[in-house]
Structures are given as C-alpha cells and as structure tokens.
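Researcher: Re-running this chain for the archive, since the previous output was lost when a drive failed. Same request as before.
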Amino acid sequence: MFSLDWRGLVLPFAYLIVLTGTFMTFSTIYRKRKAQQSANLAPWFGPHLQRNVYLSLLHMEPETGSEKAPKVPESVLRAALLRRAVEDIHRIIQIRAAKAACSSLLQRGSIGDDLWQRFQRAEKEMEEELRDVVMEANALAPNWGQSIFQTANEIAANTVLRERLDEIQAQATQEKEWWEKRRATVRSEFMKELEGEETGTGTPVDSSSVTSSPSRKKGKN
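Model: Regenerated structure tokens:
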C-alpha cells in the first residue's frame, strides 16, 4: 500500500500558506496606497456649482425661529436640475475631447500615471453624476430622466452658439474701429502728400522776365 509521509508535507504546505498570506497582505497594502494616492490627487474639474445649488434647494433647512423649512416650488427645482444637466453636458464634451489625447500621450510616456488616474476618476464621477441626475429627474416628473439630457444638450448647444456669435460681433466691432482709424490715417497722409505737391509746383513766376521779353522783341525788329 502507498502511504503518504504527512510529516514531509508539512514544510511545503507551510511555505505555501506563508507565501499566500504574504501575497494577500502585499496586495491589500498596495490597493490601500493606490486608493489613498487617488484620493489625494487633484480633481479633474472644479466644484460643481449647479449641483450644489440644486442640493441646497432640495435640502433647504428651516430658518431660525421656524420649525418647517420653506417649500421650494417644483418649477424652481426642475430649472435647477436642468442647469445641472447642462453643466454635465459641458463636462462630458470636455472628457470626450481629452480622452483620446490623454490615451495617446500615456502610450508615448509623455504624461504620468497620476494624470491618467485623475482622468479615470473624473469619468467614473461623471457616470455617477449622470445616473443621479436621471434619478432626480424621474423623481420630479415621471419619465423626465429619458429626455432631460436631450433638452440640456440643446440648451448647451444654443449657449455655445450664442457665445460664438457674441465673439464674432465683438471682433467685428473691433475690426470696424480699426478700419475707421486706418482710413482716417491714410486720408490724413494722402492730404499731407497732396498739400506738399501743391506747394512744390506752385512757385511764383519772375516778373522781370515777363516784362523784358517784349522789349527784346522790339529791339530785334
């Protein structure tokens, strides 16, 4: 009969147990350090003011001396939530525009892992933000979560178009002022040149030469 030498297997099993425990400890410490480093990284975006305004209106506290908090009209809450969604649209556009550039720079080694971690965290935060907005929209109005971002996208596009038109209008005004000054400068320079030519060609004629010419003709005759 084949018999196992359990005493001889104690050392290999103990080695495997120690190795597995060491690996699990190292993995846990590494994950904690990564999470701590990620938490200490600067956020990709600044404070979300529109979200803060909406949450302040939604959870408005009662004033001093009153037991009940003032009731915020639903129209105000919906407008605040829509402005929050518009800001989310702007941030999504920025993330989509920066993703390809960051990925390419990371592959080339032009940026560090900390910047890529910031970007990935911003993506996750935006995904959670979108889900939260959809839930809040459905809570305010049934099935509003399906169309709130479509409306927000239209508002964001109109805002960008309006800003672009304002920039073009301001640029056109500046160019018009520049052309007016340039035309006035060219006109003044032209008038100066014209006056200089008139003074150069308009020299007075010698009167003695005019009066002496007939007498000379008579003497010759």
